Every structure is written in C-alpha cells, then in structure tokens.
Write a sequence for this structure.
DNA sequence: AGATAGGAGATTTAGACAGCATGTC
DNA sequence: CTAAATCTCCTATCT
C-alpha cells in the first residue's frame, strides 16, 4: 500500500530517510549505480541533523584508511558525520567493514547501497527502501529479476529488535506502481537458466569432468549432459551433441584432452588447467604467448598485459573516446614487449584489446607505486575495484607461472614471480628485498628505501633509533628480530 | 568584463568467484 | 523490453 511520510524536501528518498531517523529506526536504500549510491547518501546526509562524537571518530577513521585519502574517502567521511553512508564494491575493504559494523551498532542510520548489501543476511534494517527496480544491462534499462528484488526486500525487519519490517518501493507513476505490485509482489521468480549453455562454462566443465574421470567414454559424456538441467531446458539433444563435440574438438586441438579408445582423457596440461580453474581459452592464450616469448624483450608489463587480456579479468577498464589517442600512443611504446597483438580494426575484439591495454597500464602504474587517489583520478577506478583487479591479476599470474613451469620454461619463471610480487605489494623492483619482511608493505618499504635502507643488510646496519624514527618502535624491533639482531 | 543560467550533446551505468600460502599501515 | 542522471561545453543574457 502507498506510504505517507512528511514531505520535508522534493526528494522522496530523502523524506523517507528523515522519517526513518525521526522514528529512531534504520534503513537501507537500494539504488542501481555506485554514483547514485553516493549522491543519495550525500543528499540525505545534508538533511539528517544528526551529530554525534562517535560518528566524528568513525569519519576520521574512514578517512584515514589509505595512506592518502581519495576524494571518495572524503565524501564518505562527510556523509558518515551525519549518520549516513554509501556502500558499494568501490569502497576499500576496511571502509566496507567499518560502515557495516557502524550500521549494526546503530551509529549509522541510513546506508545508500548497490546490491552489495542485498545478499548479506547479517545486515537487517527496519526499512528496505528500493529506489530502482531497473538497471542498465547490455540491452538497455531492464527490470531486475524478481529474485533480486526479494533479496533486497529480505533485508527489512530485524528479527531480534523489530516485530515488523517495511519494504518501500519508490515508484514515479501509477503505471510503475501497478507494475511493481503485479510483477514483484504478486509475481513469482523467473525460471533459472542453465549456465552450461554459455560456452566458456561448458569448456571448463567438460575439461574438469573428464579430468576427474566423472565422464570419459563418449557415451558417458552424452549421457551425463543428456540428464543435465541444460538438456531439460534446451531439449534439442542433437544440437547439444553438436556443441559438445565442437568443444571437445577444440580441447583436443589445444592439447588439454587426448582421444583414447572410445573416449577422452585429460593431458598433463589439461589436468593442471582444470586444477587452476582457468578457462581453457585463457590457458590456451597463455601457452601460445609463452611459446612466442623467446627472444622477446620481456618486462613486467608483458605479464600484466597477458593476464589483463583474458575473460577472467572482465569487466575491464574502458577506453574513453578522448583517451583513445593516449592509449594508442602508450601502446606504441609497449608493443615490442607484448606477446599478444592488436587484432584488425574490423574484428569485434578490437575495442576490447585496448581496454585490456588500458587495464594493464593501470596495473603497471600500481607497480610504479602510484596511489589510490591517482588511480581514481586517472582511471576512474575506485579503491575496492582496484583491489579486485589486483587480486584477479595475481591469481592469473599464478596460472601463467604454473603453465610456464609445466612447459619447463625456467628463464621466465623468475620474471613472472617478480611481476606477481610487485603487483601484490604495488612496488617497484627496488623495494622487493624489503617487502619480504613481515610488517613491511609498500609505504614502509618506500620510507626505508628513501632513508638509505635498501635491503636486509641495511636493516642490520641501521641503528634501532633510526628504524624507530621511520616505522615506529614496535615495527623496528620486529625488523631487527627478523634479521637476527 | 564577468557572472550566471540554460540548452545541446556526450558520457556513463551491479556484484563476485576461482589458486595458494600468509600477513598491510 | 529498449533510460536516466550527470557532466561538459557552449552561448545568450544579465549585472
């Protein structure tokens, strides 16, 4: 039924938030973009009139999470002072945690968020305000699935504290309201689609199932998939058979499977690829690139680009129109170091190739010790997103390393490990000796290096006083201990 | 001259999972 | 079923 709250402002969401706070309750506001989450939180924050010491402290803590605060940190801190926060995948992990804890503790009254908080069973609120029931997809603006709506709605009502919870959907028109009632409140969740129908997934499953010997003989493969959910939905067994055969052929061609009498068996490489959870296409790309690496000038960028140019790294950073020239220019400089090259302009992968180049550029800036604020300004990549990209690239680099090891390409192994270490810590090569020490990350390592302490020997010969001045007494003691003093 | 309002057109758009071996500021 | 908020750049108008 329609909800009435005092209309303090022209913005219904702000009014709902203020009403929630006036009732001494909490609300989650679900929106469809990170930008909206931030703006909504900001708009509400201006009107709450909340002022508490604990919120000021929290704001300070949030702003101090990174070595240098980004403009996102500052914005969040400002909202938090008013008892409001935004929450999405772009927040630094520590900030996410602080916001969630403060909400559970009752300090933060309202969180404007993307679906990040929809699934968290641990984040109940008196009200779940659903501002957007549409989201941008590859086919334009579309209604979100009923299941997702129900997940957001499920955050309303805290079992221990409230006897009821409220789900409020913000509808602009009568038509919208009717649609919500019909589709989301009275409708049923849509059918689940089989994921096997997506080729990369089928590739991985086929290899993995054959590797673990769940299937192998030809008939068993047909039989297995014939009884799958995919077959149940797809119905056309003959066409499925054709698709499976095509994928099997490709896996054989790539050297991950071998045909044995009456069926298939995973090769040594196929086994490793399955264990690494890599898409066989990605693994094939790695192998192909590694084989071409001999005699090339290999740099850290070589490896960063190799892993950036994979399905697993998606979504990639996108090259904006006005950036295109800059990326092209940079590409010209690094091209001799790359193992995979520019597809023709008319190929569908053309654009994506440069997205990967840009993503590799960002990772390269990271290992050149650029900080989070720089990444946000230069690449529009928020700290949380940055972290995910680094983690993914780190995992993929491990994959490249393992494949190179299997190919017995000893010379590149060290280089890959070095690139991986640099990526993980975000440091130039010169800091690698210091990074090995417990308690030393990119910031402390740089501090030590600037003071002339460049390796373990430097730690040994530096006085405890000097170390203490740089990294604090406790860490200094820990460092001395690690070099046996 | 400088401020400001407004319009046309461009730009942008959620989240999270995989390996491995432990620990940043 | 297939948008909408926000940003950028430019121009007209006002002080």
């Amino acid at each position: 039924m329609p909800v009435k709250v005092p209309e303090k402002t022209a913005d219904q969401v702000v009014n709902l938030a203020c009403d929630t706070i006036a009732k001494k309750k909490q609300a989650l506001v679900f929106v469809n973009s990170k930008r909206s989450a931030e703006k909504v939180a900001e708009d509400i924050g201006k009107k709450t009139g909340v002022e508490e010491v604990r919120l000021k402290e929290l704001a300070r803590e949030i702003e101090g999470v990174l070595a240098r605060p980004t403009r996102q940190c500052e914005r969040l801190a400002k909202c938090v002072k008013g008892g409001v926060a935004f929450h999405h995948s772009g927040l630094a992990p520590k900030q996410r945690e602080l916001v969630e804890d403060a909400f559970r503790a009752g300090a933060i009254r309202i969180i404007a968020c993307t679906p990040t908080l929809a699934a968290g069973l641990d984040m109940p609120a008196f009200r779940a305000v659903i501002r957007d029931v549409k989201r941008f997809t590859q086919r334009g603006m579309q209604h979100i699935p009923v299941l997702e709506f129900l997940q957001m709605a499920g955050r309303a009502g805290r079992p221990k504290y409230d006897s009821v919870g409220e789900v409020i959907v913000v509808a602009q028109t009568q038509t919208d309201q009717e649609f919500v009632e019909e589709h989301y409140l009275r409708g049923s969740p849509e059918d689940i689609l089989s994921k096997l129908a997506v080729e990369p997934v089928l590739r991985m499953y086929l290899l993995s199932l054959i590797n673990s010997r769940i299937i192998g003989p030809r008939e068993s493969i047909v039989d297995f998939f014939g009884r799958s959910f995919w077959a149940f939905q797809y119905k056309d067994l003959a066409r499925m058979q054709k698709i499976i055969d095509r994928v099997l052929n490709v896996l054989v061609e790539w050297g991950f499977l071998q045909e044995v009498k009456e069926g298939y068996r995973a090769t040594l490489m196929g086994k490793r690829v399955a264990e690494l959870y890599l898409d066989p296409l990605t693994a094939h790309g790695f192998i192909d690139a590694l084989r071409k690496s001999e005699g090339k000038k290999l740099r850290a960028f070589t490896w960063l680009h190799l892993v950036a140019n994979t399905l697993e790294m998606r979504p990639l950073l996108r090259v904006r129109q006005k950036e295109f020239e800059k990326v092209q220019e940079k590409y010209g400089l690094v091209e001799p170091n790359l193992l995979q090259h520019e597809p023709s302009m008319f190929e569908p992968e053309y654009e994506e190739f440069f997205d990967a180049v840009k993503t590799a550029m960002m990772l390269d800036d990271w290992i050149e010790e650029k900080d989070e604020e720089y990444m946000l300004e230069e690449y529009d990549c928020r700290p949380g997103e940055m972290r995910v990209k680094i983690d993914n690239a780190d995992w993929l680099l491990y994959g490249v390393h393992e494949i190179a090891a299997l190919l017995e390409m000893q010379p590149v192994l060290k280089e890959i490990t070095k690139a991986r270490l640099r990526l993980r810590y975000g440091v130039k090569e010169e800091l690698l000796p210091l990074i090995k020490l417990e308690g030393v990350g990119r910031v402390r390592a740089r501090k030590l290096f600037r003071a002339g302490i460049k390796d373990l020997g430097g730690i040994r010969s530096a006085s405890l006083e000097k170390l203490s001045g740089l990294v604090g007494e406790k860490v200094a003691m820990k460092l001395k201990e690690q070099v046996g003093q």
In short: The radius of gyration of chain A is 27 Å. The domain at 12-185 of chain A is CATH 3.40.50.300 (Rossmann fold).
